[in-house]
Amino acid sequence: xxxxxxxxxxxxxAAFPITSCNIQKTTALPxxxxxxxxxxxxQRNPTKSPIVFGQVAVIHSNTExxxxxSAIISVDKRITLANKNGEYNLNLSSGIHSxxxxxxxxxxxxxxxxxxxxxxIKLNFHLNYDSRPIxx
Length: 136
Hints:
15% helix, Immunoglobulin-like, five-stranded mixed β-sheet, 136 residues
């Protein structure tokens, strides 16, 4: 039986609420976007509203990362999912925003951004495995 993504997401958010954010051993790294990435996202959003995009990945070694597909990105009580390559993009309003990225089995990572109209911010989240045992 297939479970609709909306039901699976609701279960995930209920079982692992983002409000109790555990940010141990994680990093959110602002990376300089290249001109091609900026042009791609601006073309999809011709307004001057701020754009935040990037990738959610897991660190396997000092030099090796792998994308976290369907990672949950929460922004000011809104939720979006990363694609199968761990990539996400958000059109936000100007102001201060709290971004949290996570997935079951990983520590969450958060970053607070102050955005202005016309901003294009590349924000990559690097998650680490959460190897704590499940307890009741």
